[in-house]
Amino acid sequence: MWYTIPSESGFKMRSIYRRELGTILFIIILLVFLVFNRYEIIGINNKKEDKIVINYVEKLIQNNTNYTLISQNDFDTFSNVFMQNNDRYISFYINTTNGKTMQFDDLLKKKKINNFYDKVYELLALKYPSFIVDGIKNGEGEKVVEVKENEMIMYFYDYTFNPNYTENITLHVNYNEVKDYLNFKYKLDNEYYNESGYDYDKNKKTVALTLDDGPSPNLTPRVVQALSNNKMHATFFMVGINVRAYPQTVQLVYNSGNEIGSHSLKHANLGKMKMDAINSDLATANSYFNEVTNDNFKLLRPPYGSMHSEMVNSLEMPLILWSLDPLDWKYRDCDTVVNNIMSVVKDGDIILVHDIHETSVQAVEKILPMLYAEGYQVVSVSELAALKGATLQPHVKYRSITNESNN
Which of 123, 146, 181 is the last residue of a domain? Predict the structure, then answer.
């Protein structure tokens, strides 16, 4: 049998043919893949939905020269075009099938719209004081919503508040909180965190509110409620015999995130007492507090601010005085107390009032939203120290706490 041995040129021709065929098949497969997946080829966008959104945005910018595109978030049936116009945001929702503009409520299940907004008010109440939540819930204004992959960010404009509040109001809403009310496909985070009004900012003006001589079973709970309504804390300097008389009120304050300090056993003038008597007085007051809370006093406010040097040097607690005294115990008039505080308050102040007088509690209920509206955070003494970068030390008297005083 005779065999023909292929020539070298034949091998080369077949090799070239195979390479060209492989190249052609690769191009065909790539084109089919791109066409069916509607990808961009050489910068030309083949998605009908994208063209609709691009044309919409171009027209918006042409007709409104002040508009600046911030983001575009695409979903299964719509795109959210988020823009800025001067000092506020604007959000557009475009149906990517027909190019028509949608309303935000169109993104919600029709029978769940009220449920969605109830949840929004609930989340707002975690972050903002009740006077802001009530103003949004019951008032008229504009809600602008940026719809993102895993959350939406809400901006609230033109609402009226009492007292007047002019800062920007925003809310991050994770889809885990509202997933049952949404009418589009979204991403759920495995972990998330709702915004809290108790996440205090060290860069904001901050004061400590302190309340002496309680607790009062009738008045102290009102102070606790007012603090909660405004996302604020305070330090309650309690008298030992009142701690023993009203343990439920002590527990209410203790469990509410507020701070409790000692104000002696019977409101004695410690500055006129010998150390043995002082130690006995404070130890008894502390034992009453420990019986209720299983905790110990860590701060002391001597009644009348009275103390002597031996007492200062001997007691292993910081001594908390005050920088702002509205003389609420003297005037017993709500408006006078409010004016005495609001006219002079400044960053780092430790404010003194008494939660055993009706007019004092009325004043607290009134000033807390006013302070918030003026840009103040109201916190406990220990929180004020932490925010100002200070560590409260025993044997030290504190009248105020500022960044400057700790340098």
Answer: 181
- pLDDT over 80 (residue 27): no
Print burial letters for 21-60: b (CB count within 10 Å at least 16), e (below 16): eeeeeeeeeeeeeeeeeeeeeeeeeeeebbebbeebbeee
Instruction: State the virtual CA torsion across 33, 36, 37, 41 in degrees, nearest 10.
Output: 70
Q: Is residue 321 predicted with pLDDT exceeding 50?
A: yes
Whole domain around residue 93: which residue ranges? Answer: 48-102
Which residue in this structure is represented by tokens 């809310």? 171
Sign of the Cα pseudo-torsion (252, 254, 258, 261, in order): positive
- Residue written as tokens 């115990």? 329
Amino acid at 108: L
The pair of structure tokens assigned to 21 is 């065929």
* Predicted TM-score (pTM) of this structure: 0.85
Q: Do the domain assignments include residue 3?
A: no
> From CA 351, how far away is CA 328, in angstroms rounded?
11
Tell me, yes or no, whether 277 and 155 share the same domain.
Answer: no
- 214: helix, coil or strand? coil
* 2 — pLDDT class (breaks 50, 70, 90): very low
3-state secondary structure 69-104: EEEEEECCCEEEEEEEECCEEEEEEEECCCCCEECH
CA angle 202-131-250, nearest 5°?
70
Q: Report the distance separating Cα 325 and Cα 241, nearest Å.
A: 24
Residues 128 and 245 in one domain: no
